[in-house]
Structures
1.
Amino acid sequence: MAEVRNKQVVLKDYVSGFPKESDMHIIEGTVILKLPEASSEVLLIKNLYLSCDPYMRILMTQGASSYIPGSASHSPLTGYGVGRVLESGHPDYKKGDLVWGITKWEEYSLVSSDQTLFKIEHTDVPLSYYTGILGMPGMTAYVGFFELCSPKKGEKVFVSAASGAVGQLVGQFAKLAGCYVVGSAGSKEKVDLLKNKLGFDEAFNYKEESDLNAALKRCFPEGIDIYFENVGGKTLDAVLLNMRLHGRISVCGMISQYNLTQPEGVTNLANMIFKRIRMQGFMVSDSYNLYPKFLEFLLPHIREGKVVYVEDIAEGLENGPAALVGLYSGLNFGKQVLLVSRE
Ligand SMILES: NC(=O)c1ccc[n+]([C@@H]2O[C@H](COP(=O)([O-])OP(=O)(O)OC[C@H]3O[C@@H](n4cnc5c(N)ncnc54)[C@H](OP(=O)(O)O)[C@@H]3O)[C@@H](O)[C@H]2O)c1
């Protein structure tokens, strides 16, 4: 029975305010490569890729109510990842299968039967895609845009955090649906990416706009039909002033608020009445039953090069804390992935 090193990224203590690399440390434990007997843990997996996701900050706060098992302090972080099954006590999985779903930030993880897990059936695309375009963020863009907003040809769509894991897909889905789409992002390089590679009709750097309302009026002289909300705060307030009659707002995330001890207020909500706006929050995990339909829709587009995906891949668990913390200052250029092992 082999005992091997199990490097882990562990949360030192619960975080308040902006997370720092020093809130986490790397420890080198060991693991016996065998499933424990009489346990709810039914799979032993080797983690290959881990996903850096904004919601992980919420799990770092003491007492946070969470939609996946939380990252308790002094424990390895919990998050999405891609792994290879080393041992299985579950009838649906066998040794050698590739899977994506909830795992831990470590080299080897035990997975219990109630954790979100999908078998990877299509390996003609990069495996890392199952942390992004073909994993949780891809499903988020699909559900939040198509299911919640019911886009129609010719409609005007705005996406914030548009170059990120979710936003870059929302923009491309909007173009597939025949919409006009504008994205906001935090640097010139990201704005260029949106316009020149990802097919957005227009894009702007929100950090360089002194008046977000004016920026939106410039890009949407007739107003916005659909807003895909990733950031919250001042952006949401400015969007509310620019929505059209019967507009839809898909509330996916509010990254500008996650590290604030006092969240910002929104002052323009009355526009929801006058413009008959429907604003709806959602959690992607409620819609995982749509995963087969989503794959059927997206895989052909990826294979034909009609939808592309930009990834930012950091290498090695020791670089995980920097990669994760970088999300909150926009250091990632596309989907932030952490490569743990190539095989
Ligand atoms: N509801 C769900 O089920 C669900 C699922 C997945 C994700 N989400 C949410 O979707 C949003 C996007 O997630 P993602 O994975 O695609 O992340 P991401 O866009 O790949 O990375 C986060 C980006 O947010 C931007 N950002 C950071 N701080 C900001 C601030 N104060 N104001 C404005 N922008 C800021 C940065 O881009 P810039 O350089 O452009 O500022 C950063 O690159 C997040 O809010 C996340 O929590 C929700």
2.
Amino acid sequence: MDRQTKAAILCAGIAAPSADNSQPWRFAWRGDALDLHIDAGRSGRVSDTRYVLSDLAAGACLENMLIHARSLGYAADLQPFPQHDDELWVARVRWRRDPEGDPIEPLAGAIEQRHTDRRFPWRGPITTETQARLNDQARLIPGQRLWWPPTARERKAALGVIRQAETLRFRSPTLHAELFSSIRFATGWHGACEEGLAPATLAVEPPMRPFFQALRRPALMALFNRLGAASVLGWRSAWLPIRLSPGLCLLVIPSTARSDVLAGGRALQRVWLQATLDGLSVQPYAAAGVLSLGFVPIEPAFQRWLSRMGAALGQLCAPGYGLVFLRIGYARSAPRDRSGRRALASFDAS
Ligand SMILES: Cc1cc2nc3c(=O)[nH]c(=O)nc-3n(C[C@H](O)[C@H](O)[C@H](O)COP(=O)(O)O)c2cc1C
């Protein structure tokens, strides 16, 4: 494999989504084999306890690389978590030329286009054919599936769980600190940044921006929480956009084993790329699923919330563990502001 091909595969990898745009990936080439590691300095924050978010991002990155390599005529042998005592070593991929392989890989064309869109409202409908295409992509990764609320009652229940989780992100001091520390306010409301969340990508309405920015201060957040601010923010960030979008589905993984979370990231990426090809906008909501797993050590006062959320989510999508909700729909235009990426050399762990 020549250097150009190797670089092209890594470029596809880092185009993947990651929670808070943390890009927690490191790559090391061993001849034609590629090792994918989680970056110790960009992972393991409170919501990433047990590396759930990093494993999802690693799965998405891996899937992008596999898809792009296939389009270049390479097949791969994948070994997940090759060494049990190295929790950051996620996978080894051995590439080989595949003359029999089918280089037509439609999803490859969506890798650079895919992005998170936090705007609303979006148009519908999401037809059963579109749903079936997205379902098929999830199921291509063994054990993974999408759950769609079958009735209005279940959609309402799912919306309730998501709203609770998003509210908790502003109410819990631990989660609040984590959330606001990943927003790069220094770039301003129009700039881009190569890592973390650029405020411009958050779709906060202009009159609300100074207030939202001020809420990064814990004391102010606590003060406004006495007046119900967390609840309003949960309503604005989750309830309203989802109510004004035609599609909501949930990625369900079969177990909480790290290999299944990694596979979940692969399925998430396939679904998102297919949605992109279909002209759909996507916003993931991960807090409900990730907090419900029970790994995240937040303040004891909120433990009851977590148990209730976990039980409600489990009831909705059993069997399995609902991990990431996806809000989907047709936007009028592509968003002007998108998240950036670090330079490729900064991911090198060789
Ligand atoms: C595991 C995971 C969880 C995410 N959770 C959320 C979320 O809860 N809310 C949200 O708006 N975006 C979420 N995102 C989207 C990321 O913020 C986004 O992928 C990142 O900022 C890079 O931007 P891009 O997707 O436009 O490339 C999540 C992405 C991943 C992979």
3.
Amino acid sequence: MYRLPSRYGAYAISLAGLVVCLLGLALLHAWPWGLGVLAFGLLAALGTHDLFQHHHTVSRNYPILAHLRYWLESIGPEIRQYFIQSDTEERPFSREQRSLVYRRAKNTIDKQPFGSQRDMQAPGYEWMNHSLAPTRIEDHDFRIVIGADRPRPYSASVFNISAMSFGALSANAIRALNEGAREGGFYHDTGEGGLSPHHRQGGDLVWELGSGYFGCRDAEGRFDPERFAETAGLEAVKMIEIKLSQGAKPGHGGVLPGPKVTPEIAATRGVPEGLDVISPAAHSAFSTPREMIAFIQRLRELSGGKPVGIKLAIGHPWEWFAMVKAMREEGDHPDFVVVDGGQGGTGAAPLEFVNRLGMPLTEALLLVHNTLVGAGLRDKVRVGAAGKVISAFDIARTMALGADWCNAARGYMFALGCIQAQSCHTDRCPSGVATQNPQRGGRLDVPLKAERVRHFHANTLKALAEMLAAAGLNHPGELGPEHVIRRISRHEVRNLATLFDFVPPNALLSGGAAQHPVFRDYWELADPDSFAPPASVWQLRQSKLV
Ligand SMILES: Cc1cc2nc3c(=O)[nH]c(=O)nc-3n(C[C@H](O)[C@H](O)[C@H](O)COP(=O)(O)O)c2cc1C
């Protein structure tokens, strides 16, 4: 006798239930049977649809039941976040990291009772050495001057809001960030989506120009100097940042789909409403390192002497070396370089880019810092860094490795109330931070969140001041790699000064950095007139059949 496979059980029960309820309704005319008809009818319809559709084999084999699996799978991240993962293991940011930001943003207790939850014997564990001669730091508003030799230098906080566009973030999120920056005296990077009215709440701005030149482009999408000068001249714009690449998706352009190009976004970006907006992968205003330096000079002039810098994720080392050689040969340089680590965030990017492209922050920062030191430019070019910098220790470690200041994107998103739902790309952000849906974004209370942004910044720097005082220092600029120690194995620890190579000042100019393979292999070969690979790399490529 044929036995119906048990996987069809739910469908069979739904059909049987529908028949029974239909009979009950016909014979007894009581409304509960009507409810049964509705419920079993819907399930039976779903099961029939599952059986006859062709997109999902699992649904054809398991009508109705497959949906239970899909649903459980869809709420898996939440289940893991709420019930399974420990305080320190969740990614990209652990519960411990997020709750530190929430507590600092809400200005509530940020102390840890009883002791550390860290496994201090685990390889990779890092700590900072304290001193027996601690200092006393009264003011935690640590600042550095960028573009000191330019007509309009900028005094920046050491912890600022990294680039996130209006478009990626909601209007209210941008407003709250900018108000928080104004109140706390730190800067807010516009992101590459242009400078919108929401950015103009009185906070200091770094205006970012991506390859789409939003807010300063002509009808063909090319750089428009007049429109640039107009916006760059605004008092709130303190510096200009040319975005070359982003750690989470280096070398990947972007498309903002037409339906998302609202009248407000169209006006901010200087593009037609309702049409797809393309951000090309590369800039059209320059195509060689030397041309890039000329473009930087031009922007500086057009902005009335404000500091101009670049933001990049490190890829091929010879391309970065070529830029530094162009700086030397042209006798001019960007006022700052912001290094974005491969672990950096994004609203949306392909998984391979997020996971596998872009050098992680430690290595990228070391390369940038060492090259500038070796080329005799480090005293002229300030270095910023971003990539999962969220706590005072993260800032201290990053500055110890060569950064002059740090930026955070997702840290400030948490301060706004982001819960790491990771739905930035769906327009259904539950906290109203990363959405263009006016209902969702509109519920974000601007004055309250601005205050949290300010508190997060101030309390993080207060914690940094306490760490520095314990280490016997007065300013984070005094930190060096010798202050941070890493466990290599259960029986070996090294301080970062001995773990990593540091190039002596001017060593690249005299051939003295040759012991490090990356400098030995590529520094001499890098060409300030081209981003193309050196001949030795071409030769390797030609050894393959293509
Ligand atoms: C929602 C979102 C939007 C972003 N948009 C930009 C952008 O427009 N331009 C840019 O240079 N970086 C952008 N980034 C990258 C951040 O500025 C930052 O460099 C990176 O996330 C590393 O910082 P974090 O680890 O503190 O998030 C974005 C990041 C996020 C999370």
